[in-house]
């Protein structure tokens, strides 16, 4: 016995049990005898059951429910215990390590519970890391060609990257929303889509609308927040969708729906209150509301003039007019009051629109103007429930950020929904939003940061003959070639020739707009410079023919044109007919819906991929085809242009 005990002590496994004062060999013998006894008893029991004709133990009774039923609560979190407290986490007891089947270095652990828990966390973290790495590998595989070849673009690296795996998942979701009728918008809003927007060719929601409208209507589950208890403030959303994808309607429709619903709820509440007052008065006719004999003013009677329910912020007066026009056309059907105001309006117009005695529901404005109005009139933001920041990357950059954040802070107490939207998400914006709005729901379309393949990009090498580095000459010549080409067809309009061609020329510096426009005019081209100081009336007129808001009168040759044609025939001077050109900077590239533009000329190579996306985004809008032409002159980054062209050809996102 002593020898056995000695042997047991020598074995490292038994050392622990010996330490606890047990005798393994003796226990083993006792255990074996017990097993034998149990087995014999079970055998006797089964034989007795067979004799009495009862159900066999091996063949389960069909009348009794099986114990092997799949749980229907697998995906649900663990239920709290009966006392209402959350279930306690099992902690490993020191002795639970004794029966482990895997050698995990138990002797080296010295029964250290804390260390084991740390290891558990580590292993969980490492499996999550593996999963993330798998996702990254997938994306790397998808973008390996682009990331390998985009050396020049990598140096700019201004855009936030969206994984391709995520894009594919969104594509599947977008396909589920195939009509406006399927969305729970109010009847009047549905009617407005049909009647007030006759120009919508397809009448099906675009991908941007398919991801944004359900989310803003509250149909989508909010993602789980890290700290749900701490979440305060409005629900915030970021819509990132490519240019010309219908972002304006993506936020306007849910906002109008919310305005109408709030209005209906207010009306109901007022009626309920009136009925209540009437019953109290009927019950006690002697009761008087006017204490001291003076009738109290009914505060609800007066409609507070400038207290809109929704605000839309945009970066330019041109966009105020554009979004205002869409809102106005919807308001005829839905009956709400929209007030587009910008610095281009006179003070009287602003006052009349904003302080309308019937009230205002929706204000469309630039941040600096609204911030200055709010400073002298803080009540203007007291009832705002929906705040939309269109072109968010511009409105949160250095120039607009102070006024945008000021409006946001003032509106926050009453704000229910904050909606940001943009065609490009630069890294600085992504970082800022992650810090400021960690719970922001991000709505991204599958083609974000990609220029559609239906837009072709051509390159003109200005250094070569016949231009010899003369960019202005190259620009004029390119416009002449486009203007003279007759085989220009619009597939969206049943393959009809386009009578008047509209071309946008983008320059990097504002001073160049005038110089280039002047040169083009000298060369017989109908060109106009478009910048902040252009005469507003002339500007609006020129832009209207590019945005399709002006009914296009097709050329019944005017006297001037006939003259020009005559002089052209006699060879005295050359005049390019039926072609209109606007020379502009970034001002014309942000949000302006230039639906009738088929050609965009990039006179200068844009500084960033963001500018590429916005400038080329003025053509090929909403399924149309378009063409971009870059003039690469001395000192321009030809390598960047080459890579952008490559990405466009492959339909990949720019980085
Ligand atoms: N569902 C739809 N079907 C057809 N056309 C639509 C639809 N939604 C919007 N449009 C049209 O698409 C055009 C572009 O819309 P919008 O200006 O809202 O694009 P955007 O995404 O804001 O572009 P950008 O990023 O350049 O500002 C408009 O002329 C609009 O009338």
UniProtKB/TrEMBL annotation:
It catalyses: ATP + H2O = ADP + phosphate + H(+). InterPro entries: DEAD/DEAH_box_helicase_dom, Helicase_ATP-bd, Helicase_C-like, P-loop_NTPase, RNA_helicase_DEAD_Q_motif. Residues 228-443 form the Helicase ATP-binding domain. Keywords: ATP-binding, Helicase, Hydrolase, Nucleotide-binding, RNA-binding. PANTHER family: DEAD-BOX ATP-DEPENDENT RNA HELICASE 50. A motif (Q motif) lies at residues 178-210. This is RNA helicase. Its EC number is 3.6.4.13. Residues 178-210 form the DEAD-box RNA helicase Q domain. Residues 484-655 form the Helicase C-terminal domain. Residues 109-121, 129-142, 550-565 have a biased composition (Basic and acidic residues).
